[in-house]
Structures are given as structure tokens and as C-alpha cells.
Amino acid sequence: MDEARMREQVVDEARMRELAGGPVEGEAEAADPSAPARPVVRLSSQSVPRWAVIGIFLMLLVAGIAYARVFLIPVVFGFLLALVFSPVRRFLDRRGIPSGLSAFFIVGSLAALLLMGLSLLADPVAGWVDDAPRIVRELQFKVRSLLGSASAVVEASQQVEEIAKGTADEDVQEVVVRQPSVLTSVALETPAMLSQAVFALILLLFVLASGDMFYEKIVHAMPTFRDKRRAIRIAYDIERKLSRYFFTITLINAGLGIAVGTTMWALGMPNALLFGVIAFSFNYVPYVGALAGIAIAGVVGLMTFDQIGPAVLPAAAYFTLTTIEGQLVTPYFVGRRLEMNTVVIFLAITFWAWLWSAMGMLVAVPMLVAVRAFCEHIPRLEPLGNFLSARGSESVAKDDEEAV
Fold first, then answer.
1. What gap in Å lies between CA 40 and CA 17, rounded to an integer?
2. 8 A C-beta contact, residue 323 and residue 352
């Protein structure tokens, strides 16, 4: 076997010399001293740059995440919810309640809240969908009446363009490919979203019912005692921060929903309860959710009131309430240690919205919280954690000293 391997090595080196046009580095020169010198070929073990390999891997990873979105969305939701509710399940375990019973209680409560929200939204949303053509026509009419002379100028310019085309194009039929409307897209995606929600709840049930099995597997997989302790500390820290963030934001969103619903009722808006539910659910997506709620309030205000003042007032009230919540209430109750870089949050929301649509916007911020908590325990990733934070490095170090 050794002689055969030596022969193969000699043949490979001969082929390499023949292809390269010179001897391999470290090989003795040719026996003929009068032969002309040939360039030495240096063989590098890293012929491909490292950054190119990393770039190709990242592109393939993003493409794979986008392709497997139907499967990954409920899986990510399930594990995020498991991290959020694991402290609750552990609290019930310490009170003598089995993990399986705690899991059924948590998942059943979430399913009941989901069904309650759907029942509250079903009738108003169905009415809006049925009246969508009429709403669009009335909205166009009111916008034109508000714009006044501007719309007249636009119509006049369109008439001039049609006259300029002449009679040659009168017999030509124009084929217009209409894209599906927003309401149609939402109606088509609703069954898929509901099935993903059911899958996420079932996965959450199994993960919570298994107790600390995943943590035990992680501990057994770590080679040293130091790594085992660090892995458990990271897992518990991610649980604690995600739970604190989720429950705090839920309470804040509930208060915002009550305030928005009460304000819309006082202003005489129809379906004030629906606006409260919209404010509660949309506010889980920072910035984008508030803008969507303001737009909906503005459109419904234009449809409800004839004068410009009362029509704009609901959108202005919605904007005021979300501004107070975003600038005063949330920073105060969430705390400095959970504050995130606003630019990073906006980029993460847009990136995950591009990958996973509306469901991606919901998981963007919780995933950032988890990544930041992970980076705080890894020395090499501390710069990334500081970049994700809304504070400077000095304040981060000060908080760490206070925590110690």
C-alpha cells in the first residue's frame, strides 16, 4: 500500500509540474545543471479568498431562508414563544404543576386570545372588504374635492393628451394587467397564516411540555464545565430578556389600544373597538405599525366626515398617542438594558419584511433582543452587542459594573 501511494504521489507531482511549467516549491532542481531555470510554483492552501466564501455562504443562507419560509416561520415563532413562556412554565413547575399541564394551560390561553381577537375583527373586516369598491370611490371623490383645482388641472392635461393622440388610436384596444389588490392578497394569505399559527402553537406545546430537555441536551453537548455553565447562563439570559420585553410590550400595547379605542369613540369614528385592536396588534411592529394605523385612521376619517378638520383629527390623535407611547412610555418601562439601536431595528424590520412579509416584521425585534443577549456573553461578539444597543460603550460598561 505504501509503494502504491508513493507512485500516485510521484504521478501527481509530475502532472503538476507539467501543468505549471515549473517545479513545485521544495523540490530539487533538475539533474541537468545547464537546463534553463524555471519559475517556482507556490501552492497555497487558501486559493479562494475567505471573504468570498463567507459572501457565498451568506447569499445561500438568505436564499434558503426565503425559500423555506412556509416551514421556518412557524418554527421560529414556536421557539421564540417557548423562550418567552419558559420562565412561566418553570414558575408553575416550582409550584408543583407538571410541565405538561402548564404547557396546556399556556397554549390554551394563547389560543383563546387568538380566537377572541379574530372574533372581534371578523365582522368589521368583513364589512370593510364588502364595501371596498364603494369606499375607494368615495375616497377618490373626497380627495378630488379636497384637492380642488389641482385635480381639474390633471384632468385637463389628460384630455389634452387624449386629443393629441388623434383618431388613429381609436380602434386600438389597450390590455391592462391588473395586479391583485391589498385586500385580495390579505384574503388569500389568511388561511396560510392561520395554519402557521396553529403549527406554531402545537410546536410550543411540545417544547414546553418537554421541560428543560433541550437545556440538558445542550449541557451534555458542551465539552468543558465552563462551556456548560456559559451555555445555561446564555439560555436563561435570553429567556429573561425576551420574557421581560414581550410582557412589557404587551401591557403597553394594551394601554395604547384602550387609549386609541376610547379616543376614536369620543371623536365619533365607526368601529372604535376595531381601532383599539388594530393599535394593540400593529404596535408589536415598531414604526411601521404606527404608520399603518395612522394611515387607516386617516382614510376612515376622510370617509366618515365631510369637512377637512374633523376628517384629519383621528389621524392626528392616533399620531399623538403613538408618539407619546414610543417616546415616553416604552423607553421608561422597557428599561435601558433592552433599548435597541433604532436604525438597526428599522433595517431589521425591512429585511425580514422582504423575506417573510408581515410575519417577518413580527419576529424582527425579538430576534434582535435574542442576538444581543447572546453577544453580551461572548467576548468576541461584544462589539456587535454594543452596536445593536442604543447606548454607547461607556454606559454599557457602567451598567455591567452595576450589575456585578
1. 10
2. no
CA R_g for the chain: 31
- Return the closest-CA partner of residue 353 out of 338, 340, 363, 343: 363
pLDDT above 50 for 76: yes
Query: Phi, psi at residue 323, to the nearest 5°?
Result: -65, -45
Residue recorded with cell 436564499: 63
Its pTM stands at 0.70
Q: Average pLDDT for residues 213-235, to the nearest whole number?
A: 85
Alpha-carbon distance 214 to 238, whole Å? 14
Round to whole Å and give the CA distance between 369 and 362.
Answer: 13
Write out the three cell numbers for 308: 377637512
How does residue 7 score in pLDDT terms, banded at 50, 70 and 90? low
Name the one residue in this structure whose C-alpha cell is 376619517. Answer: 301
Give phi and psi for 41, each to the nearest 5.
-95, 120
Residue spans of the domains in the chain: they are 239-334, 335-404
What percentage of the chain's residues is helix, strand, coil (to nearest 5)? 80, 0, 20
Percent share of the chain, pLDDT over 90: 21
Whether 321 has a pLDDT exceeding 90, the answer reads: yes
* Residue 127 binned pLDDT confidence (cut-offs 50, 70, 90): low
Cell digits for 49?
479568498
The three cell numbers locating residue 76:
421560529
Partners of 231 in the β-ladder: none
What is the grid cell recorded at 126? 368583513
Contact 324, 239 (CB under 8 A): no
Q: Which three cell numbers, joined as nine digits, stand for 157?
A: 392635461
Which three three-digit cell numbers place residue 377? 456573553
Q: Choose among 327, 323, 324, 270: nearest CA to 297.
A: 270
Residue (of 209, 194, 31) closest to 105 by Cα position: 209
Question: How much is the pLDDT for 308?
Answer: 80
d(CA 48, CA 232): 37
3-class DSSP assignment, residue 41:
strand
